C-alpha cells in the first residue's frame, strides 16, 4: 500500500516517459483523478480512463494515463515533474505568493478549498493553498 499517492503518480509518469511508454497505470484516488484532469486540460497528457485490473484474484480499479509525445524522436510533453509539498514537509502559499513555473510555461498544481486547481486559476480566483507539484 502506498502512503503518498501523488509522489507515486509523479514517479510512475516520470519512469514511463523515460522508457517512452504509451500508457501507465496509477492507483485511483480522487486526488490522482483531479490531477489527471488538470494534466489533460493543460495538454501534458493525451487522456486518461478508469480501468479494472485483475491482480491476484481481485479486481482493482486503476487509473490508466495515456502519455503524449511529440516528433519522430518521441520527446515527452512533460519535461519534468517535481513534488513540492510532501507528507513530511507541507508547503502552503497565500494568494500573493503563488509561484510561477518557468515564467508561465509550466504549471503549479494546488490543493485549495475550491478543489485541485492550477496556479493560474488560483491567481484569478485570489485563493491560496497547498502546492502539490510543478509540471513543465
UniProtKB/TrEMBL annotation:
Entry keyword set: Chloroplast, Plastid, Ribonucleoprotein, Ribosomal protein, RNA-binding, rRNA-binding
One GO cellular component term: chloroplast
Pfam families with a match to the protein in the record: Ribosomal_S8
Entry GO MF terms: rRNA binding; structural constituent of ribosome
SUPFAM superfamilies noted in UniProt: Ribosomal protein S8
Subcellular location field: Plastid, Chloroplast
GO biological process, any: translation
Subunit structure: Part of the 30S ribosomal subunit.
Functional summary from the UniProt entry: One of the primary rRNA binding proteins, it binds directly to 16S rRNA central domain where it helps coordinate assembly of the platform of the 30S subunit.
Family designation: Belongs to the universal ribosomal protein uS8 family.
Protein name per the record: Small ribosomal subunit protein uS8c
Organism of derivation: Eutreptia viridis
Lineage: Eukaryota, Discoba, Euglenozoa, Euglenida, Spirocuta
